[in-house]
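pasting for ref
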Amino acid sequence: MSDPSAAAKENAKAGMTPERARKITVAVRALMALGALGLLIGAVTARVIWAGEAEIAASTAALKRGEAQEAVVRARRAAGWYAPGAPHVRVAYERLVALATAAEGQGDRETALLAWRGVRTAALETRWLVVPHAEDLDRANRAIARIESAAPRPPGTRTEPPQRIEERQLAALARDEAPRTPWVVALLAAFVAWAGGAVWALRRATSVKTGLDMRGARAGLLVALAGVVVWVLALWRA
């Protein structure tokens, strides 16, 4: 077993104070954690891109077989495997729009609606603090409202102008029922506060070097409690 005093003397000879050694250790651990996080993000991104490219390939194969609806379904799945800047996402949206436009021009209402709804669904699925494909979402909403307004109607509603129906459909599609962004941010902050406060309190309460530090433990518990309160409030308001 090495002598701690001998190690301290060696550090002192090398111009390394205990405080500096501690800071270096913390920095090394932080770099290792960042490296592990980077590997995890890279693995997840690779998985997303691989799955998206596979769905695009399946969509292309369906097109070659003349199966337009299967091509739409596969392209929608590819758009759902979203990663910023991924080539398959751009190809998926372009294919969905092209298939929708072609089907609408040929009078194929069913396929056109399937494709435009695919654009809408993919855009809504991949939104977070922002909507990456907001323009595509707006275009899809307008197209769906236009097609639905021209659909055959029950006898009791035939006197209503198609323009009125289209406006009502568009208003319903444009209604944003997603959680409000500030409260989503509050949810994330609350989770960090709860987890961080709990870990801090546990470390202070079980520290070998300083013994039981009730003041530090109480501070951590207060932060954790505040995190829980904000979490519940954000869930209620979001």
